[in-house]
Amino acid sequence: MTRRKKWFWGVMAVVWAGIIFACSNGVVLWRDFVRFMGRLVPGPNGEARFEAFWEKWWWLPTKGFHVMEFALLTYLTCLGLRKWKSEWPLRTVLIVSSFLGLLYACADEFHQTFIPQRGGRLTDVLIDLIGVSLAVGIFAWRSRSYQPQLKPASETK
């Protein structure tokens, strides 16, 4: 395998970790977000209608984004480790990727404690772990379903 192919997915995982860091480094204020989105809602009272929706359902896109961020990070990590450490069994790749995902989730929440108007939350780490678990499960399933099937010796003659 060429050196470039060997490192590609690992580099993509590091780039995605940087994007997560950048997203965690800022804050979108509730009022500003509602005002912006309210302009996009068609019809009268768009801002008020969006605010009513957002008060009830804010957690779904917000926490869903957490799940997606860490699912993608973990999947990229699995791909990177599979290429970089091809001698590792699948189980080792999954365990190391899960540990790295958990470690980055904790570091991300700790980082947010230093950002004004943000905070680190254990619940967000647990939500991030949902993404880690999904990615590990999907990677394991895909890896096992694409394993070459060996024919018994009696069929090869």
Quick take:
This protein is mainly α. The protein has six helices and no strands.
Structure, described:
The chain has one domain (3-145). The mean pLDDT is 89. Helix 1 (3-24) runs antiparallel to helix 4 and helix 5 runs antiparallel to helix 6 (122-145). With 157 residues, the protein is mainly alpha-helical. The chain is 75% helix and 0% strand. The two termini are 31 Å apart. The radius of gyration is 21 Å and the shape is elongated. The protein contains six helices and no strands.
Query: Given the structure, what is the number of helices?
Result: 6
Uncertain residue ranges: none
Distance between the termini: 31 Å
- Beta-strand fraction estimate: under 5%
Q: Which structural category fits the helices and strands?
A: mainly alpha
What is the arithmetic mean of pLDDT? Answer: 89
Q: Helix and strand layout, with pairings?
A:
Blueprint: H1 3-24, H2 30-40, H3 46-57, H4 59-84, H5 90-112, H6 122-145
Helix pairs in contact: 1-4, 1-5, 2-3, 4-5, 4-6, 5-6
